[in-house]
Amino acid sequence: MNQEEKLLLRIIGNYFESRNTFDLKNISFGKLLLVIKNTAMDGIFYQVLKDKNVPENFLRELKLGYEGIKYNDVQLSKIPSLFEKSKEKIIILKEWNYKKPNFFGLRYSCDIDLFVNTNKPKEFDKWLWNNDFLLEGVDIVKSLDMIEFAWSVNKDVSKNLLLKKYEEKKISDYLKSIKSSSQKIITLGNRLKFYEKHSKIKGFNYYFKDGSFVDIHYDLFSKEFLDIDINELKKEKIKGNLFRLKNEDSIVIDACHFVFSILKYSNKAYFHGFLKYLVDFEFKNNDVDWERITYLSNKFNVNSYVWFYLYLAKKNLNSQIPDKFIFKLGKKVSFFEKFLLKNISSNLLFNKQSLALKLYCNIYLK
Fold first, then answer.
1. Residue 214 near residue 114 (C-beta atoms within 8 A)
2. 3-state secondary structure the chain
3. 283 alpha-carbon distance from chain centroid
4. Strand pairing partners for 235?
5. Which end of the chain is more exposed for a tag (fewer CB within 10 A), N or C?
6. Under 8 Å CB-to-CB from 199, ≥6 apart: which residues?
7. What torsion, rounded to 10 degrees, do the Cα atoms 73, 78, 81, 83 define?
8. 244-272 pLDDT, tens per residue?
9. Measured between alpha carbons, how far is 12 from 158 in angstroms, rounded to an integer?
10. What's the pLDDT tens digit per position in 13-35?
11. Is 91 a residue whose pLDDT tops 90?
12. Given CA atoms 65, 136, 178, 173 in this order, what sign does their dihedral have?
C-alpha cells in the first residue's frame, strides 16, 4: 500500500473509535482524493477533514461527494415503508439493515437490497408493477452466464453476441449500447421470462418511479455459490410486513456477500465496493454476540468467509474484535486457504489484482 492508502484506512479506523491520530504531512492530496473517490469514502472523509487545514479544492470535492451520497440516502430511505403493506414478508439486507438518518452521507449506496420471502415471484412482480416499480434487469455472477441467459430469454437481443464467442470487447460494446452495466441485462421481450430459469441469478433489479433502485432477492445468493435458508436467520420487525435481520445474522450474511463479490468482481477493474462492505461491519460492531456468529458460521459452513471478513476488519480498520474469536474461527480454515486469503488481504480493498486472488477464486469459489 502507498502512504495515501494507509492514511485512508487509518482515518476510517479512527473515525469509528472517535480518535484523531493521523498525520497529513507529506501527503499528496491529489492522490489521496483519487483513493477516496475510488473507494467511495467521500462521506466519512468529509466529516473527518472538514475542520482540518486541507486544500480548499480537495475539501470542496469531498463535500460534493458527501452531499450527493446524503441526497441519495434520503431518497432511498423512503423506499422501505412502501413495502410495509406487502402480503409477503420483506427483509432488509446489507447496509440498510443499520442505516438511519444520522448515518446518511457516510456510506455510499446505489440501491436498497430486499429479500422477499415467497415462492411466487411472478405474483410479487405484479405487485411491484402495480406499486410503480419497474423491472430493469437481473444480476448474474459471470459474463458468460449472462450472455447464455440473455440468449435464452430473448434471442433477438443476444444472438449476435453468441455468434461472436463471447469476445469481451463485443460484450462491453453491446452493454454500452443498451445502457446497462456488465452485470445486468435489459430485456426487450417478456420480463416474466426471467423467472423461468434462475439458478444463476443473484437478484432482480427494479427502479421506482422517482428513480430509486431496488434489488429484489428471492434467494440470498445464487444457489451455485451458497444456499442459505433465510428462515433459519433471526429477524426483528420494523413495521407491518417489513423486517430486518438481527445484527449478528446480518454480519454473517455480509461476510458471505463480501466473498461472493470476490467471485463476481475479481476480474473487473471498475468495482470499488470492497472497502465500503468492510466499513459496514464497523457500523454494526456494537454489542455483538460473538457466540451467535460462531454458531451461524459453523451451521452454514462459512467459517472461512466470516474469518476473512473479520480478519480484514481487524487488520485494516483496527476493529474491536476479540482475538480469541478470530483464532477460533481460523482453526476451521485450512492452512492453504488462510495463506491465500492473507496474501489477498489489503490489496482487495483497493481492487488490486494478485496471483493469490486468482488462485483463491479458481480453487475455492468455482
1. yes
2. CCHHHHHHHHHHHHHHCCCCCCCCCCCCHHHHHHHHHHCCCHHHHHHHHCCCCCCHHHHHHHHHHHHHHHHHHHHHCCCHHHHCCCCCEEEECHHHHCCCHHHCCCCCCCCEEEEEECCCHHHHHHHHHHCCEEEEEEEECCHHHHHHHHHHHCHHHHHHHHHCCCCHHHHHHHHHHCCCCCCECCCCCCHHHHHHCCCCEEEEEEEECCCCEEEEECCCCCCCCCCCCHHHCCEEEEECCEEEECHHHHHHHHHHHHHHHHHHHCCCCCCCCHHHHHHHHHHHCCCCCHHHHHHHHHHCCCHHHHHHHHHHHHHHHCCCCCHHHHHHHHCCCCHHHHHHHHHHHHHHHCCCCCHHHHHHHHHHCC
3. 14
4. 245
5. C
6. 222, 223, 224
7. -90
8. 999 999 999 999 999 988 877 666 555 66
9. 44
10. 888 887 777 888 888 999 999 99
11. yes
12. positive
Q: How many residues does the chain have?
A: 366
A 10 A CB-CB count for 212 gives: 19
Q: Are residues 212 and 81 in contact, defined by beta-carbon separation less than 8 angstroms? A: no
The two beta strands, 235-239 and 133-140, are unpaired
CA distances from 81 to 41, 86, 241 (A): 27, 10, 10
Give the cell for residue 97. 439493515
What is the pLDDT, as a whole number, of residue 45? 93
Q: What is the pLDDT of residue 199?
A: 53
